[in-house]
Amino acid sequence: MDKRAATIAGLTAAVISLLLGMAVLQYLHENAVGLPRLLATIVLGRSALDAELTSNSMALGVGIGVHLLLGLVFAFIISFTLHRWGFWVGLIGGGLFGLALYAINTYTMSRFFPEFYFHRSWFMVALHVLFGALCGGIYESIERDRNAGRSIYRN
């Protein structure tokens, strides 16, 4: 497994999925910063969603930080799981991992953080699938195989 490629893939996929999610919410005239602030509730508690904190950059920064950190963790899991199977397996397998990630995260997190319950939607499914597909595809595209040219059988 290429740790450098996993780091790049995780951060890139996390940033793209977060920015795209915020852009779509803004386009739909919803609160675009609500998405990172939702993630900030993991660290800051329900106070991160208060209306008074809408302009608070701390909740926004913590939410973005949590998103990037979780993106890295999940990127390493995707990279370890889909290691060396090629671009299409990375892309499709990453998307399926994103779908599983949505199911596990949303239904588990909503038991501990009730505010996640209201964010069960096809939009969130699409963002998770997008993250997984981007992460798997990017990882497989830039992975360096340290054993390239070597036989898998020892003589």
What's the quick description here?
The protein is mostly helical and 155 residues long. The protein has helices at residues 3-27, 34-44, 57-81, 87-112, 122-142. The protein is elongated and about 50 Å long.
How many E strands? 0
What assembly state would you assign to the polypeptide chains in this entry? single chain
* Overall radius of gyration: 17 Å
- The string of secondary-structure elements, in order, is HHHHH
The total of helices stands at 5
Show unreliable segments: 149-155
* Sheet with most strands: none
Principal-axes geometry comes out as: elongated
Question: What average pLDDT do the residues reach?
Answer: 85
What class do helices, strands and sheet pairing give?
mainly alpha
Portion in strands: under 5%
End-to-end Cα distance, whole Å, is: 24 Å
Proportion of helical residues:
55-70%
Structure write-up:
By secondary structure, the chain is mainly alpha-helical. Helix content is 70%, strand content 0%. It has five helices and no strands. It has helices at residues 3-27, 34-44, 57-81, 87-112, 122-142. The longest helix is centred in the middle third of the chain and has 26 residues, at 87-112. The protein is elongated. Residues 149-155 have low confidence and may be disordered.
